[in-house]
Design goal:
The chain is an alpha/beta fold. It contains 20 helices and 15 strands. It has a 6-stranded parallel sheet with strand order 5-4-1-6-7-8, with helices on both faces.
């Protein structure tokens, strides 16, 4: 799946530059004595400046007047321009999807940059001095798949690049005119863009996922029971049929006791064969030592345990539920171990984020769509403390005790972090001021810890990494 790159026109797409532009034209009129209808000028923004200048000055003066216009522009046009409604939300929506942004405008490139900087619009690549189909060259160069504009010329640019032409009716053309000209999508303004983009990108990424899965005859899915691997399992069953998919849930002391039965039930609901091989990561010194590289040894054990199962059924594909967010989440030695052993990552390859996976899961009616993240129990043990089955049992018992006391609050995330004799309790930040924290501390102490305290920052995925010095992460790899 290619990276998401979205291009935007500038004037009357991202910004209302009419007041500033009109001021510059009025200034030119005053300097030259030429009667310029500046209101008419700003009513038809879009084409290159030289085209408009030719309407008011003879050919031999056009270049000089363009140069003069550009001299006045920074001082008189920038501060008067305002972002159009929905701009900040649209740029944020692209970032949330791990995408990049660019602006392709007929405006002078330095002026494009000045506008973006003045308004604090975070755009990766500003490009100017291109109009109409010429914009397609920049869009192709940066592999833009969507181009948003307010002018018919922007539609030409999008189509020249093979991009989706999204038009907003905030410029000189009405929605009907843009639609009739050939826009693929027409929106009233950018406030409608984030919702459209989310739906469009999710559809594209799901199609990419299903194409990838359909390229395999059979597949083993490393199925932890969590939302990501559950969605992958359901997608594989849809793509190649449940009879050709095996769900493998590894059983070991690091699997929370409450996870196995729901995993079996979920696989059965899909009609998928469910196997529960025992893994022996506890026998690996690198795992027990619990340095920052612990997850490497765990994932290595998992894939090496699943390989004989795949071989037994004549299956060449073993897939994990690694998603696009996991791939950029910093130090992830487990992903490296799986990759080295040939495991597939279809969700990551389709660029599906955690949020998208949950959205798609809800649309498919999967019961795991809102299931809280549930990393293995070993992730609760502070690095450097040697992992033993007894420590894992203590953590599991403590977490169940905390969760049972928060059921009425609709708790989603609970972690009891083992720091040695003491424990750090992490719950959803929104609940911190609503619950009896001492009751939670007492429950954790009763589960076997000497002392405990509730973390005032609330639940944070991977918070143990905050305690690990950078050089320590790579020790034992």
């Amino acid at each position: 799946m290619p990276e998401l790159v979205v291009g935007f026109d500038l004037d009357m797409t991202l910004i209302d530059s009419r007041p500033g532009i009109q001021a510059v034209w009025d200034l030119l009129a005053a300097e030259t004595g030429v009667p310029i209808d500046s209101e008419l000028v700003v009513s038809r923004l879009g084409p290159p400046l030289t085209w408009e200048m030719a309407n008011w000055f003879p050919p031999e003066q056009v270049d000089a007047m363009v140069a003069r216009y550009r001299e006045h522009y920074p001082e008189h046009a920038i501060s008067g321009s305002l972002p159009l409604p929905g701009v900040a939300e649209s740029l944020a929506a692209i970032r949330a999807l791990r995408g990049r942004t660019m602006v392709v405008s007929a405006k002078y490139t330095p002026s494009v940059r000045l506008h973006l900087e003045h308004l604090g619009l975070d755009v990766d690549e500003p490009v100017g001095d291109l109009h109409g189909a010429e914009k397609g060259s920049a869009l192709r160069e940066h592999r833009a798949t969507v181009f948003v504009g307010d002018h018919t010329a922007d539609i030409d640019g999008a189509h020249a690049a093979g991009a989706v032409a999204v038009s907003v009716a905030t410029g000189p053309f009405s929605a009907d005119e843009l639609r009739a000209y050939g826009a693929d999508v027409v929106l009233n303004d950018l406030t409608e863009f984030p919702a459209w983009l989310d739906e469009y990108v999710l559809e594209q990424r799901l199609e990419a996922l299903m194409r990838r899965l359909s390229s395999y005859d059979k597949m083993v899915v490393a199925f932890s029971g969590g939302a990501d691997s559950a969605f992958l399992l359901a997608a594989a069953a849809r793509a190649i049929g449940p009879a050709n998919v095996i769900a493998a849930t590894a059983v070991s002391p690091s699997l929370p006791s409450a996870e196995l039965e729901p995993a079996a039930r979920f696989a059965d609901s899909l009609g998928v064969r469910h196997v529960t091989p025992h893994t022996h990561e506890m026998e690996r010194e690198g795992y027990q030592a619990n340095s920052g590289a612990r997850c490497y040894f765990c994932k290595a054990e998992l894939i090496e345990t699943l390989q004989p199962i795949a071989d037994e059924f004549g299956i060449t594909a073993i897939a994990t539920g690694t998603n696009a967010d996991d791939a950029i989440a910093g130090f992830r030695p487990g992903i490296r171990a799986a990759h080295e052993r040939g495991a597939l990552t279809p969700l990551k390859d389709a660029r599906l984020t955690k949020t998208q996976i949950r959205t798609a899961s809800r649309s498919w009616g999967l019961e795991t769509s809102d299931k809280p993240a549930a990393a293995c129990l070993s992730s609760r043990i502070a690095y450097g403390i040697r992992i033993t089955p007894n420590l894992l049992v203590r953590v599991d018992r403590a977490e169940q005790a905390v969760r049972s006391r928060l059921t009425s609050y609709g708790v989603e995330n609970v972690r009891v972090r083992d720091l040695g004799d003491s424990a750090s309790i992490e719950i959803d930040a929104a609940l911190l001021d609503r619950v009896d924290q001492q009751e939670l501390v007492d429950a954790v102490v009763a589960a076997g810890f000497t002392t405990a305290q509730v973390d005032p920052r609330g639940f944070r995925s991977g918070s143990m990494n905050e305690r690990l010095p950078e050089p320590e992460k790579y020790r034992d790899l």
